[in-house]
Amino acid sequence: MFELSRTSLRIQITLLGSALLFGAPALAHEPVAAPPTSGTAVPLYDNLGDLHYPVDTRHELAQRYFDQGLRLTYAFNHGEALRAFRAAQQHDPQCAMCYWGEAFVLGPNINAPMDADAANPAVAAINKARDLAHDAKEKGWIEALAKRYSDDPDADRGPLNEAYAAAMGELAGQYPADQEIAVFFVDALMNTSPWDYWEADGVTSKGRIGEAIAMAEQVLQRNPNHPGAIHLYIHLTEASNDPHRAEPYAERLAGLMPGAGHLVHMPSHTFFRVGRYEDSENVNKRAVKADEDYLDQVGYDGLYAFGYYPHNIHYVLTSAQMAGDAATAFEYAERLQGKIPDVIAANVGWTQAILTAPYYAHAQLSTPATILALPDPGTQFPFVQAMWHYARGVAYAAQGELENAQTESARIAELNNSSDFGMLLDWAVPAPDLLRIAQHVLAGRIAQAQNDAQRAVKEFEIAAAIQDTIAYMEPPYWYYPVSQSLGAALLQAGEPQRAVAAFERSLEQFPENGWSLYGLMQALQACDDAVAAQDVEQRFKQAWAGGELDLRKL
C-alpha cells in the first residue's frame, strides 16, 4: 500500500500533504523526480472532458498528455497530473510547457503545502522549461512560475507565493484573452492565503481575494463551462455570505469532467451551503463511484486515495444527516472504515476530522444500544476517541443513565487536558474547541434528561458561542448547528420567542436543514403564529427524509 521506504518522501507534520500527494498512484513506488518508464504506460482517459490548451509541440501524444495533465491539475489530482506531464515529456523531450506542468504540480496548492523533497525536482523542471522555451507567451508562463521556487528548500514560501502571484498578474495583463492564464492567476492569488478568504462577516474579502473573484467571474462570463474556473470560484465563494452566486456554475461542473471525482464532488461545497442537501448527497455518491473506478485502475495510494476519496464519502454521510436519512448515513459511515491508514491520520490532521464523522452520525441518528455497541477506537488518536466518548454520553443521557453520561463527559475533559493536539492545530483542526463543544452539548443533554431546561439553555448557549468561533470548513467541523439544541431547550423552558430566534440562527448556519425547520415550526406554533408555522411545515416536509422527531433529538 503505502511504501514510504521506497520513496524520497518524508512524513512531516506540516509538509506531509504534498509528499503523499506526489506519492499518488504509481509514483508511490519510485522517487519523486523519476519519470514513467514509458509514456504509453500512463493511460489517456476518455472521461475528463475536452479542455485543450495548445503548446509548442509537434507531437500529438505530447499535446494530449499535456491537456490531460492540465485537466487533472484543475481537478486537484496532482499526482496523476504529474504522471501525465512526464508522459508528455517522454513523447516530446523538447516540450517546454510539459516541464512547466511538472514544476507546477510539484508546488503548493490550497489543500497542501509544498514538500521539501519536491523543491529540487521542481527547480530542475522549471530550469529545463526555461532552457527549452522559444515562444514568448510560454516564456511568460515559465518565468512567472520560476518566481515560486528557490534553490533553498527551506526558503520562506510566503514571499515566493506573492512573487508568483504578481508575475501571473502581469502575464494576465499581457494576454487578457487567455483563459488559462487567468485561471492560474486566480489560483496563485488563492495560494497567498489558502482557505482564508473572508472576514468574519462573510462580506469583506481579505487581501487580493476580491481581485481573484473578479478574475474568475470574467472567465466564467466568457466560458461558463470552464472546469478550473468553476472549481476555484466555488472555493472562493463558499465561505462568503453569498454562496448562491456559484450555484449556476456548480450545477454544470459534475458533467464537465465526469471521470474526475473531485470535480464531480465540488458542487456540493455550494449545494451544502445553500441547503441543497439531497443534491449534495447525490453528487458525492457519483464522486465516490468516479474515484473508485479511477483508483481500481491505478491503486489506492497517496493523498488522493486517503484524503480526497474519503472526503467524498464523508460528504455523503454529512449531507444525509441533514435530511435525517439514517440508512444512507450509516451505509457511508461503514464505508469510511479502513479508508484512512493510521500513518495518514497521524500526520494529515484534517483526515482525523473524517474519522470522527461516524460517531457524529450515530450520536444524531442511532439508538442508544447501537451507539454503546460501537468499539473503542483506541488511544492513538485522542480527538477521535473523545468523539466516541461523546456519542456514548449522548446515548447514556437518552436512556436516563446520567451517571454514566457524566463519566463519558469527564473522559472528554481528561483527553482535552492531557492530549497534545499540536499536529491537529497545525492543520487548522480546532480539536480543543471541538472537545469543549462536545462537553457542553453533552452537559445540555444531561440537563434535558433531568428536566432542567434552564441549565440546558446555559450549556447550549456556551456550546453555540464556541461554535461561532470555529473557522469555516466543509463539511463543518461540528456536525450540526448547536443553536437548534438551544432553541429546543428554550421551548422546553417556556420561551418560544427566543426559541424562534435560535432556530432562525441555526438556519442561517445550516440553511433548510430538517432538524432546525422542525424546531422552528414547533416554536412558531407555540407563539400562535399559525400561518408562519404552516409555511415552515411545508419546508420541513420537503427537507426531511427521516422518521419522527421530538425536541430532545434536536
Give a summary of the structure in a few sentences.
The chain has 554 residues and is mainly alpha-helical. The protein contains 28 helices and no strands.
If you had to describe this structure to a student in words, what would you say it looks like?
The chain has 28 helices and no strands. Helix content is 63%, strand content 0%. It has helices spanning 16-21, 60-74, 78-91, 96-105, 119-132, 136-146, 157-174, 179-190, 209-222, 227-238, 247-253, 261-265, 267-273, 277-298, 302-322, 326-335, 342-345, 350-365, 368-372, 382-398, 402-418, 422-426, 431-449, 453-469, 482-492, 496-509, 514-526, 530-543. Mean pLDDT is 92; it is low at 1-40. It folds into 3 domains: 1-155, Serine Threonine Protein Phosphatase 5, Tetratricopeptide repeat, CATH 1.25.40; 173-260 and 269-274, no CATH class; 344-553, Alpha Horseshoe (Serine Threonine Protein Phosphatase 5, Tetratricopeptide repeat), CATH 1.25.40. Helix 14 (277-298) packs antiparallel against helix 15 (302-322), helix 25 (482-492) packs parallel to helix 27 (514-526) and helix 26 (496-509) packs antiparallel against helix 27. The radius of gyration is 25 Å and the shape is elongated. By secondary structure, it is an all-alpha fold.
